[in-house]
Amino acid sequence: MSWKPWQMQSRSASWICRQTMKTSESKLIGNSADAILASCQDCERKMPREMIAQAPATGQFGQIAHRRRLAAKRALVFLCCLLTLSAAHAQSEDFQRLMQSSIQAEKRGDWRQAIELCHQILKVKPGDVETMVSLSGLYGHAGNPAQQIAWSQKVLVIQPRNFKALINRGNGYSAIGEGRPAIDSYRAAEAIDPTSPIPAYSLGVVAQAQGHEAAAAGYFHKALQLSPGFEDARFNLAVSLANQGEAAQAIRVLDQLLRQNPLASDAIQLSRALRSQVRP
Question: How far apart are CA 197 and CA 44, in angstroms?
Fold first, then answer.
């Protein structure tokens, strides 16, 4: 909803704040509505006391002066709203620019650049949860599990049921060989979204690393039930089967994978190695 400048003479300051917060601009800039309201309230608190004094109960000139004081007050509050929106717009543009640059760096596999850009985003928009989640994942890609765990923990302090942060924390613990906290993180994520194949797959990876091949195969089967096209789960299932001496079954699993993706080089190599061990 839009309004013309002269309308503010017939509207209260609180109405202006409400209308400002309803604009599409406030949706684009995240939490700026709270900042606008706080700024406007701050303006009202700082107004000179004589400007907000009550008009005399009677007297034509007293009423005129009172109306002028109110108009001045509302004009200042309205100006405060505009200034806050202007700053928020600039912040939003910086946020969007940095976000797009970070996404492009991640697509290129430039983890260092993507991490640096995420830190810049957090300077523009401190406490942005999605950026913090991205940072935890990026540190994992960059081979820094300690920072991956640390940033995941920061997210989980704010949002204890953040699925991605739980997975990232589990991945960090798994990377440093801490199986128990990794398992706890994956199970917590599974409880949040039992339809996702990621927790089951991740639990399988931990079991595989610990040498529990039968348990790992069970987790990979579960992941494939939830997502039949999950190539990594199918390949790791074949590995677990092969490690248990089930070469023929592993080959069948690899054949299924290669029907999905004939160019899967790891699957081709493992299939050839297993076929050389199996008698005709």
Answer: 53
3-state secondary structure of 12: coil
- Let me know: does 166 contact 185? Beta carbons within 8 Å: yes
Confidence of residue 49 (pLDDT cuts 50, 70, 90): very low
The string of pLDDT tens digits covering residues 199-257 is 999 999 999 999 999 999 999 999 999 999 999 999 999 999 999 999 999 999 999 99
Distance CA 255, CA 262 (A): 9
Measured distance CA(226)–CA(92) in Å, rounded: 38
85-138, pLDDT tens digit by residue? 444 444 577 778 877 887 787 788 888 999 999 899 898 888 899 999 999 999
Helices marked H in 125-246: 129-141, 145-158, 163-175, 179-192, 198-209, 213-226, 231-243
Cα–Cα distance, 243 to 208 (Å, whole number): 10
Which among 32, 40, 27 has a CA at the least distance from the CA of 125?
Answer: 32
Query: Is the pLDDT assigned to residue 50 strictly greater than 90?
Result: no
Distance CA 132, CA 233 (A): 27
Tokens 């991945």, residue located: 171
How far apart (Å, rounded) are the C-alpha atoms in residues 97 and 143? 26
Nearest residue to 164 via CA among 180, 145, 188, 142: 188
241: CB partners within 8 A, 6+ apart: 213, 217, 247, 249, 250, 253
Helix (H) or strand (E) holding 61: helix 60-108
Q: Which tokens hold the place of 175?
A: 């990377």
> How many CA within 13 A on the CB side of residue 82?
9
Residue type, 205: V
**Cα 241–chain centre separation:** 36
- pLDDT (tens digit per residue) in 140-167: 999 999 999 999 999 999 999 999 999 9
